[in-house]
Design brief:
Blueprint (H helix, E strand, L loop, with lengths): L2 H13 L16 H5 L13 H4 L11 E12 L2 H15 L5 H13 L34 E11 L2 E17 L6 E20 L3 E20 H7 L6 H8 L2 E15 L3 E8 L4 E9 L7 E10 L3 E8 L11 E7 L17 H4 E11 L3 E10 L2 E10 L2 E11 L8 E12 L1
Antiparallel strand pairs: 1-2, 1-16, 2-3, 3-4, 4-5, 5-6, 6-7, 6-8, 7-10, 8-9, 10-11, 11-12, 12-13, 13-14, 14-15, 15-16
Helix pairs in contact: 5-6
Length: about 425
Amino acid sequence: MKFKKILTLLTFFSFSALSFAGDYIVGQYRNVRSMGMGGTNVTTALDEAALIYNPALLKILKKHKLLIPGFADFANSNSKDLYNDFNDFLDDLDKVNGDQNTLYLLQAYIDGTTLSTVDINGDGIVNDSDIVNANKRKIPNEYLQMQMSTFAGFITEGFGFGVFGTFRSNQIGLTGNKVNPSVKVNADGTLEIPVGLAFKIFDKINLGASVRYIQSAKVKKELYYTDISDLTQDGLSTEGELSILGAEKAQGIGVNLGAVVELNKLNIGIGLQDPFTKLQTSKYVLKNGSTTEYEEQDLEKKSLPTILSVGISNKPYNDEGKKNKLFWAVEMQNLLSKDLNDDGHDDTNLYKKLHLGAEYTVFESRLFDLSLRGGLNQGYPTLGTSISLAFLEVEYAYFTEELGSHLGMNKNEVHSLALNARF
């Protein structure tokens, strides 16, 4: 199977609920509304995101929502150019046979040179079909970083259920130098099926919990030319491809807890994600005594990181049940300083925990809504908007996230777009 098909396989492997199932980091659902509002969610998730971030917010909801699969795409600012570069690289990889020719191909894309003097496809002659990197793409240490999310389900006051799917490319790209080039693959996908309940006590305190089935798959490996050559060989089984990729899958049951305390004009929210969650991990390995057959082998149980977040906001609705013109929130997230982006460093920096956001409702009616959003996400500004026409909703957000251990180390600018159908 050629490499482009292998990447497609990885995406399917990540999402498939029927075939595959320290802290174990998985890609977590996030929606465009939250990111437009500075990444706030423990007080502002008045939609399906409440099932993940603070189930107590289900009790704050004023009307029910049925969501037919909505889709959101989060891509860094140079993703379009990188996608074209990688598409050329993968097309050229389809021409390659053998370890040495795979090395030549990687070197051409590291140097940004066209290679046309090598019998790349092994037919005994050098011709036009042997030309690789015709556009002189030069992509060393450039990584495709993106996330795709989808959700379908139903939420109403005090109750909600749904299906979340998330595929995340943390790093996919060429790295190293001409002597020792490689392809770095760091990607994961997660399927979550939560059911949440919320109730009120003492008139002012809302409590909530959600229980969800989690199935995740991840690949975090540096592939050298010999690995890539092995992946593209004819006759290799799906299990063999996943074994060479080092793909690891995990599944289990997770619990999220939350509370919202309603004061006179303010709400205080507390979210506790995965305080008890452990996932059973497994991977594919060669069967004893075989060089071609693979079997699934259970590994250890791993805990998801426990995420504690708190926030304060004004009331989202007025006495008539309509949205307040201005809805704002200030939150401190990940107070236990867990490594949430899987970079090997605990997120202890104060700025990475701080999130501020606001939403201004320009117009609200039964058929048409227009909202503007803004905020600060980990010290970086965010912008967003939402337009609803009848049951269709289009959302956009621009934000920057910090991928390093402290502010300014490795910022990633992201544009996100979502299309939803809410009833």
